[in-house]
């Protein structure tokens, strides 16, 4: 069983550094997995996690891979648990240093506080009395200190020439770093999310696109996450991928394990979506948010689904609201706590059977 700060050798000179889950009771930050590897004279870093103890493991692994001429750091997205140790780029010896993130996640990376306050304000009326978005976000972000996300080597991926990247028979839009790294646009978990493919070892790192079957945040895109899942599953079936990792599963998936993981996520996406849809159609006059949560919590179909990455009341509330928004449903009425959620223009529909 892999534990926090362990490292796994994916192949010669390729390492996965193991993070950990968020623990609210212990006031412990979640730390995303990171990948460190060397190809030719280039050292690659995929995400940097958070916290000083994790940064030290990154430095230790990078030291083992010296000497290098070039260092490339790519953040899969801007969430604090993936970017907190970006300053590590200044502590590693290399003649050339580059740091990349999507332009769409740049503001997020530089100001996680505003991002999460916006999301928490969206759920404020549906949380326990006294829930304060600013205070709650500040409490959470303290778990991650010290945070060093911005670097002097930063550029946006969009400043690079884009490519139509073909892997097997699957097409992606993204960026190539020679044959050492393919950065693939997924844009589901966040607006600028990317996943990465390491062609030398046929390995894919999904970042947070495989966190669960339903996204949480205001800038997510459910369909794009689903599209990434289906494309990667097709690549696995073709044999273009031999192994898979992600930001918050503390293991390395072989081909068969990765197929099972993605098939479960794809199935769960439709089960969750159709369970919520069926509930709203059954109660066509509308339900309050608390009523929706009540029914979902008691759904036998949903109980059979795999748990999401960080199950807790805040994330569960964000998930329900995110899927309602994906349906085009906004609450009706001035009092959000008592307002009703329902499909607009609803009428008898024979295709609902």
Automatic annotation (TrEMBL):
SUPFAM superfamilies: Metallo-hydrolase/oxidoreductase (SSF56281). Gene3D superfamilies: Ribonuclease Z/Hydroxyacylglutathione hydrolase-like. Residues 31-248 form the Metallo-beta-lactamase domain. It comes from the Bacteria. This is Metallo-beta-lactamase superfamily protein. It comes from Legionella quinlivanii.
């Amino acid at each position: 069983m892999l534990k926090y700060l362990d490292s796994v050798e994916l192949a010669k000179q390729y390492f996965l550094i193991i993070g950990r889950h968020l623990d609210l009771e212990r006031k412990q930050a979640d730390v995303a997995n990171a990948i460190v590897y060397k190809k030719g004279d280039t050292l690659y870093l995929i995400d940097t996690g958070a916290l000083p103890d994790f940064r030290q493991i990154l430095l230790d692994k990078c030291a083992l891979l010296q000497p290098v001429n070039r260092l490339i750091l790519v953040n899969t997205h801007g969430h604090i648990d993936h970017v907190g140790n970006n300053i590590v780029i200044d502590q590693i010896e290399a003649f050339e240093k580059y740091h990349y993130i999507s332009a769409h996640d740049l503001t997020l990376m530089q100001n996680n506080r505003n991002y999460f306050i916006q999301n928490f304000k969206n759920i404020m009326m549906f949380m326990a009395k006294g829930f304060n978005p600013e205070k709650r976000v500040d409490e959470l972000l303290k778990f991650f200190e010290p945070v060093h996300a911005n670097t002097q080597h930063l550029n946006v991926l969009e400043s690079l020439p884009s490519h139509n990247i073909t892997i097997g028979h699957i097409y992606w839009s993204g960026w190539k770093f020679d044959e050492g790294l393919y950065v693939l646009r997924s844009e589901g978990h966040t607006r600028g999310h990317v996943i990465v493919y390491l062609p030398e070892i046929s390995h894919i790192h999904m970042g947070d696109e495989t966190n669960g079957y339903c996204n949480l945040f205001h800038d997510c895109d459910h369909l794009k996450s689903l599209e990434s899942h289906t494309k990667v599953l097709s690549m696995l079936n073709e044999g273009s991928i031999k192994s898979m990792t992600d930001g918050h599963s503390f293991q390395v998936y072989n081909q068969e394990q990765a197929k099972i993981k993605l098939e479960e996520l794809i199935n769960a996406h439709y089960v969750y979506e159709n369970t919520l849809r069926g509930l709203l159609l059954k109660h066509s006059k509308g339900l309050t948010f608390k009523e929706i949560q009540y029914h979902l919590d008691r759904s036998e179909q949903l109980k059979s689904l795999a748990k999401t990455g960080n199950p807790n009341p805040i994330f569960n509330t964000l998930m329900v609201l995110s899927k309602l928004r994906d349906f085009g449903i906004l609450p009706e009425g001035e009092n959000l706590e008592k307002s009703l959620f329902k499909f607009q223009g609803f009428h008898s529909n024979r295709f609902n059977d």
